């Protein structure tokens, strides 16, 4: 068992991870984003809580 899983899984709920559905560009933000800054496509939040 590994104490402190942060070394294995860097997921932090304070940071949102977004991926563009059109160009697949990924970005992080502390705010909720809706459109890609590169192509203007729709973003989806890929930060999924893990067990």
TrEMBL record:
Residues 8-51 form the DUF7129 domain. This is Rubrerythrin-like domain-containing protein.
């Amino acid at each position: 068992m590994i104490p402190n899983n942060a070394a294995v899984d860097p997921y932090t709920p304070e940071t949102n991870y977004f991926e563009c559905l059109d160009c697949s560009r990924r970005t992080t933000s502390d705010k909720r984003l809706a459109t890609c800054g590169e192509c203007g496509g729709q973003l989806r939040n890929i930060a999924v809580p893990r067990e």
